[in-house]
Amino acid sequence: MRNPWLALEAGADPARRAGQVRRAHEEFLTGGSIATPVRDVVAESWRRCAGARVAPEGLARIDLDDAALAACRAEHPLAPVMPLFRELLGAIAEDGEHLLSVCDARGRMLWVEGHPQVLRRAERMNFVPGSRWAERASGTNAPGTALALDHPVQIFASEHYCRPVQSWTCAAAPVHDPRTLRVIGAVDITGGDHLASPQSLALVQATARAAEARLAALGPTTPAPAATYALDVLGRDEALLHTPYTRATGQPVRLGPRHSEIMLLLAAHPDGMTGDRLAHELYGERDVTPVTLRAELSRLRHLLGPLLVSRPYRLRERPATDYDAVADALGAADPGAALAAYPGPLLPRSEAPGVIRLRRLLEQRLRRRLLASGDPALLESWLCTSWGEDDLEVRDLLHARTARAAHPSGGPGRATSAQRSAR
């Protein structure tokens, strides 16, 4: 099955595909229909761009002057891992054909680096530090679309919504705060058509994961302020919302399944979400009208009052969540504390794509920490849960550790080299 996030399948002719997509782009702009071979992820992005009234001939606008750019760079959580980005992608940025760029969660380019000649070419489309490349501002592009969908993606040539960008190809991956799991920016490589390969997408994705691991090792730089609100979402299908009033009464608000999903997603995206993006995170590819989402949000607003605001949809104050406690312990390399704080999967029955992604991310990080620790007590605790009882990898590691502990010098529990050869 073809990977929908890759621009070209094996054996595709880049020049021919670019021409086909360019014609499809023109047909969409003039008639509104999208034909093959346009990928679904690109078609959906074009529709979002049209809905946001992005000008097809437009250029990215400059949001940050030199002083504001310097301040944003100094304060941004990705600043400490810029040396890592340069280490992993620096050769690409200096080869005279590519650019390395890093943007914040709003799509504002904070760093754009590469060969001076390539940088000058990129200036013609305002691909410069301080410019805003969010999808709703600058059309379909890899960093902007990666942020919009919270997923690594390639955008090839004429797949770009704005014509001034269609001579470039790019691959980008979002980067998450390892404590809160929210998107804090994206890393991107931009160049020619040869970037439309599986290797470039895998490279930026691996770089993003390495940055998240480095951030987790560094730990939080400043203590988070105490939250007024709290949200329990682990090991339960209906979230519990704790407010100043409910703390006094001891009766938290129990949210329905859909409201639980919405609150979790808004907590995970404190900068806010457009209606289109929130609908995609909740319903995926299902054919759901915007009225359905607005009705759900209207009902939720009756419960939350001024805590929920719109344009974009966001929470005035981000609630502390119980998955924060697990993420904090993982970031501090304390798998025992993380396991103790983990009462079960995140909203386990939810089928919302955004919730599934957060659920898998947290569970995978926890499993990796447990496996890396090799602590028999922790491994056994994981296997004694309903969600970990069938984990064969953990079971095999526990068996190996207990066998080694029982026969530390290679006694009856360990085959000799002659016995292994005979097998």
UniProtKB/TrEMBL annotation:
SMART domains: Trans_reg_C (SM00862). The keyword DNA-binding applies. Residues 403-423 are annotated as: Disordered. Keywords: DNA-binding. Pfam families: GAF. Residues 250-315 form the OmpR/PhoB-type domain. This is GAF domain-containing protein. The lineage of its organism: Bacteria, Bacillati, Actinomycetota, Actinomycetes, Kitasatosporales.
